[in-house]
Design a protein that fits this description.
single chain; 265 residues; alpha/beta; UDP-N-acetylmuramoyl-L-alanine:D-glutamate ligase; six-stranded mixed sheet; three-stranded antiparallel sheet; 38% helix; globular
């Protein structure tokens, strides 16, 4: 059977993040990608100038159309900007018994623009995080979910990961891209283990869509039959190479995209 992954996320008109980044990642990693659009953004490498939310009932209709026909093996969830949308997505995922849910709690764009309403955070924690196989917050997102200061050390990252794990997800991947030092360190925290994943930090402004790309790469690995630890490790390798190769692209005047097709172009 053809491995199929669906992304439930917002659209990025500049093509570097969101639905567009997810579909590029799925394709690069040999997975057929379907999509459910939750919001339209007027966006480029400089920032987000407008957001148009898709009505919850139409999001439900998209999900029902996809799951009724396609054999979905993994789900990547990105931008869900409103509480009603989060509740709708959670209900339809439960209805279709969706497997291998990778939840990227998108709160702030690379440009600094806020993408998740404050009142939606509690709903995210209550109805959606418990359904996830893994959640993939970066350092600011992990701090926002816990209403704490951002972790500065790996020990603090690990402690925050354990507290996030208590919200109900089976695993937490805290991403260290916003940290400092020669290495960019992510921690995969599961009930009985902590896995350290490190890569050399690349000095570049071309980081638009890194979080979307990593979470969708994890979902692709799961759809291809990898277990979670292997899927995360392969995703880290893919994203690190995509960041390193981003300098071969010349897109926009701000935070440029990573190079999803670095192995092909």
């Amino acid at each position: 059977m053809t491995p199929i992954t669906v992304t439930i996320a917002g659209s990025d008109s500049s093509g570097g993040a969101g639905i567009q980044a997810d579909l590029k990642t799925f394709s690069a990693l040999g997975v057929y990608g379907a999509s459910v659009v939750t919001a339209l953004t007027a966006q480029n490498t400089m920032g987000v100038s407008a957001i148009h939310d898709v009505p919850p009932d139409f999001i439900a209709a998209q999900m029902d159309a996809v799951f009724a026909d396609l054999d979905v093996r993994a789900v990547k969830i990105g931008m869900l900007s409103q509480a009603a949308v989060i509740e709708t997505v959670a209900r339809r995922l439960a209805h279709w018994q969706a497997p291998n849910i990778v939840l990227d709690p998108v709160m702030v764009a690379t440009s600094g623009d806020r993408l998740l309403n404050q009142d939606a955070i509690d709903v995210l924690k209550r109805v959606l995080i418990p359904r996830a196989l893994v959640i993939t917050p970066n350092l600011p997102e992990a701090a926002a979910l816990l209403d704490e200061a951002m972790a500065r050390t790996e020990v603090e990252m690990s402690r925050q990961g354990e507290r996030l794990l208590a919200l109900g997800a089976r695993a937490v991947l805290i991403k260290g891209g916003h940290g400092e030092g020669a290495e960019s360190v992510d921690l995969l925290i599961e009930a009985k283990s902590v896995t350290r994943l490190a890569a050399g930090r690349v000095a570049t402004r071309n980081t638009h869509g890194t979080g979307c790309t990593l979470s969708s790469a994890i979902a692709a690995g799961l759809a291809n039959g990898l277990d979670l630890a292997a899927a995360v490790q392969e995703a880290k390798i893919f994203v690190s190479a995509a960041i390193l190769a981003a300098q071969r692209l010349s897109v926009g005047a701000g935070h440029g995209p990573v190079h999803h097709f670095h192995a092909w172009w």
